[in-house]
Amino acid sequence: MSSDAYPSMPQWLRQRALLTPDRLAMETAHEELSFKQLYARARQAAGGLRDAGVCCGDHVASLQGNTLDCAVTVYALMLLGAVMVPLNTRLSPMELAGQINESSSRILISDRDNAATADQAVTGADCAIIDVAALTQTAALFDDHEAEIRLTDPCTVIFTSGTTGRPKGVVLTYGNHWWNANGSLINLGLQQSDMWLCCVPLFHVSGLSILMKSIIYGMPVYLMKKFDPEQVNQLLMNGKATHISVVASMLRRMMAITGPNSYPSSLRCILLGGGPVPTALLQSCLDQQMPIYQTYGMSETASQAVTLPPEYMRKKSGSAGKPLFPLQIRIEADGRTAMPNEPGDILIKGLTVFSHYLRNKEATAAAFEGDWFRSGDIGYLDEDGFLFVLDRRKDLIISGGENVYPAEVESVLNGCEEIERAGVIGIPDQEWGRVPVAFVSLNEGAYLSEAELITTCKTQLAAYKVPKRIFVLDELPENASHKLLRRNLYAIYEKMTHEHY
Amino acid sequence: MSSDAYPSMPQWLRQRALLTPDRLAMETAHEELSFKQLYARARQAAGGLRDAGVCCGDHVASLQGNTLDCAVTVYALMLLGAVMVPLNTRLSPMELAGQINESSSRILISDRDNAATADQAVTGADCAIIDVAALTQTAALFDDHEAEIRLTDPCTVIFTSGTTGRPKGVVLTYGNHWWNANGSLINLGLQQSDMWLCCVPLFHVSGLSILMKSIIYGMPVYLMKKFDPEQVNQLLMNGKATHISVVASMLRRMMAITGPNSYPSSLRCILLGGGPVPTALLQSCLDQQMPIYQTYGMSETASQAVTLPPEYMRKKSGSAGKPLFPLQIRIEADGRTAMPNEPGDILIKGLTVFSHYLRNKEATAAAFEGDWFRSGDIGYLDEDGFLFVLDRRKDLIISGGENVYPAEVESVLNGCEEIERAGVIGIPDQEWGRVPVAFVSLNEGAYLSEAELITTCKTQLAAYKVPKRIFVLDELPENASHKLLRRNLYAIYEKMTHEHY
């Protein structure tokens, strides 16, 4: 590597197809593809995208379910050197339009299931829709003969809700994805029989990271269109997969229907992320000696950043574990490194930490302190170096693995002319971990029913962000300078519903 | 990673000791160390080296056998940010002095076994000897609290013989070692039960790379002081190790004494490198269904660069396989990329390729064509992308895994005042693959017996470089411009010995 400190690598899928062409790459309920076939499919899709005008460096949005076509799209954009902007299919057309606009995507790849939403999302925008099914029908194979990547190049932009309500585009480089795949590999090992069951969304970093691992490791992925606990159980019981990524609500639904059967030993890793795990659920997993790897991570760390291996589940119950090899964790209290067991801000440093927030210098600057990323979460390291996460990012509501920021929901409610002020909090929920609940005060003389308010939210917000209840109060609790006191809303909620938690 | 495209990593051993402190790190016939203990030992040795004046960036030579102390030295120097220059213990004092001088090493770490040679090697040089046994006796632990590494920093300098006779110092960065470990990991997988038997020298990249893998993977190494086929077989038969690195001559000696027993299935990888493998040996391995991974690599690629997995041993017999994931191979014929099956120069590109030759701009420039490293070897890629190595670097004699360049031996012979001219070639040998044989013409009136000539060589050359036979000719074959015609020496050798090959 004489001429550059950070030289290029061969295109990952191309290299994988060269190294292990005949190995199984991807399986769905209907189809199986080897790496050679997957590569051919991706080259064809890349040909179609090139014909549609996609160039190296372009941002290209995608609104697709968990299909083979979607996976092929991910790889095709990588072959072209284009940057994929995967959009959450649960978002409202208005939210989607915002992210298409924010990312300057001039093409939106959509599947049939999301075609109607896609149409609404691009209304009035300079963005053409491409039907993913049409992509591979006519185009000549894209010639990627000399295609290489640089680890410093951007690969994907994933939008996350922000504390201010404005979604932030997390720019992840090829290097970020590479180091995540490699850190995870060192952490979990790799065997020839490994197969990862992907039933988390490909538009989230959790799903995307499985696609990256697949072509880097040469490991097949079983891709499910939609999470279905019965189907997942059936696959796992049949020894179909060795690894699965889940969030707590998925795992609970799976375990609710396993009956007395425990999963076979072929299942060697259940990667459990996406927020806090209820103690009762963890206890059941312990009782059944399930290979649970609790993890802590986020889009900004290209997925899994900290992991607790099963052998520590009992001894370090509640811990998220230790960082992946290329990462470091620091706890900061009062501007200094905290002592063991002393809570403080969780900072993360290392090669999987994202590059920057797209066109948002302010948010980027606020997120970094030198090379250290301020996660916004609170936690501590115990005397053995295990991380315990105490509080998620201030006010963040994690609902079924999805992030909901009160500010985002509040800003929609505050947009109603009848509403004077709105406040949103997260309430514990058996099914989803937490769900948003809103409180509003109305302008003088105005009237709106709870149902009407909820309908309004539904037109503008993803279903999981819509408050499950909206209470009308005479006035919201505020401090002397009239700032909303969200924490007081919890007591009000308890009083009004007589629910204790 | 906001501030730098290539940020730092935690010190590997420190991170490993944090992540898996109690896991077994290293075992010898006499001792076992966990990663925590290994780390403590390395910090103590680093403390001793710091007290002896070793600073970050210094080149520090090492003349040690395969002992735990030697491994600790490797890690200690890494903690200090010093660059290790491991010296081949088989070299003559004169050769060693040359490499100490070439690398500006002002400290030579030696063990008892090599103390006498070390003394001779530093005579007259500005280089102090440190006895490795004394290193850990008094020093305070080195505080590496904030120690990090950059992948672009130099880590080791390994000398290889050069075509011109002048040894070249191959500068390998942390990144080179990292990418080799990771490429190998993707290639071979990783299981919790893995343990690598190291009976190749730690002063070669093959041994060094095992030490790197150990702390990156969290994998224990069984370190043998000296290769002993019986002992190795015993360890393998007892299921002690899952992986072993060997060269052909070692493997043949092992297999000669296994009798009818085949190795247990716990042995899942025999990494076979260091030059061509005789067909008969490969056939025996095939017959016994041994998990042979043939490899092609060199110091300049931080060890293993191309690997053939066992499932292709029959179908692609004689092939070195396909490149590690972060590497690419190109065959160049007549200045263009060769067609499949067309032989040409083997060029290698990627993240494990060395940085440069130490203080040797000319050799570095000659070795690189952009990012592509000219291996100097000849070979071809078949239609499936498998590499077949046809000829090793021009004139290179690989003897028992060690490189011998004719030019180096010739220059010693040419230094004798009785000798007019010398020519050296490599002759096939049952035991070592090839051995050097010399031809000399003497000055008028001079006389030297073969025994005298060999004795002269022994004082200046490592034993494996000393010609097994030295023939005195009236004159050596030369071309019109009086250049030595080495290839004609083969015919002369055949004629003189009646040996055919």
From TrEMBL, chains A, B:
<keyword id="KW-0436">Ligase</keyword>
<dbReference type="GO" id="GO:0006631">
    <property type="term" value="P:fatty acid metabolic process"/>
</dbReference>
<keyword id="KW-0547">Nucleotide-binding</keyword>
<comment type="pathway">
    <text>Quinol/quinone metabolism; 1,4-dihydroxy-2-naphthoate biosynthesis; 1,4-dihydroxy-2-naphthoate from chorismate: step 5/7.</text>
</comment>
<comment type="similarity">
    <text>Belongs to the ATP-dependent AMP-binding enzyme family. MenE subfamily.</text>
</comment>
<dbReference type="GO" id="GO:0031956">
    <property type="term" value="F:medium-chain fatty acid-CoA ligase activity"/>
</dbReference>
<dbReference type="GO" id="GO:0008756">
    <property type="term" value="F:o-succinylbenzoate-CoA ligase activity"/>
</dbReference>
<feature type="domain" description="AMP-binding enzyme C-terminal">
    <location>
        <begin position="408"/>
        <end position="483"/>
    </location>
</feature>
<dbReference type="GO" id="GO:0009234">
    <property type="term" value="P:menaquinone biosynthetic process"/>
</dbReference>
<dbReference type="InterPro" id="IPR025110">
    <property type="entry name" value="AMP-bd_C"/>
</dbReference>
<dbReference type="Pfam" id="PF13193">
    <property type="entry name" value="AMP-binding_C"/>
</dbReference>
<dbReference type="InterPro" id="IPR020845">
    <property type="entry name" value="AMP-binding_CS"/>
</dbReference>
<dbReference type="InterPro" id="IPR042099">
    <property type="entry name" value="ANL_N_sf"/>
</dbReference>
<comment type="function">
    <text>Converts 2-succinylbenzoate (OSB) to 2-succinylbenzoyl-CoA (OSB-CoA).</text>
</comment>
<dbReference type="Pfam" id="PF00501">
    <property type="entry name" value="AMP-binding"/>
</dbReference>
<dbReference type="InterPro" id="IPR000873">
    <property type="entry name" value="AMP-dep_synth/lig_dom"/>
</dbReference>
<protein>
    <recommendedName>
        <fullName>2-succinylbenzoate--CoA ligase</fullName>
        <ecNumber>6.2.1.26</ecNumber>
    </recommendedName>
</protein>
<dbReference type="GO" id="GO:0005524">
    <property type="term" value="F:ATP binding"/>
</dbReference>
<dbReference type="InterPro" id="IPR045851">
    <property type="entry name" value="AMP-bd_C_sf"/>
</dbReference>
<feature type="domain" description="AMP-dependent synthetase/ligase">
    <location>
        <begin position="14"/>
        <end position="358"/>
    </location>
</feature>
<keyword id="KW-0474">Menaquinone biosynthesis</keyword>
<dbReference type="InterPro" id="IPR010192">
    <property type="entry name" value="MenE"/>
</dbReference>
<keyword id="KW-0067">ATP-binding</keyword>
<comment type="pathway">
    <text>Quinol/quinone metabolism; menaquinone biosynthesis.</text>
</comment>
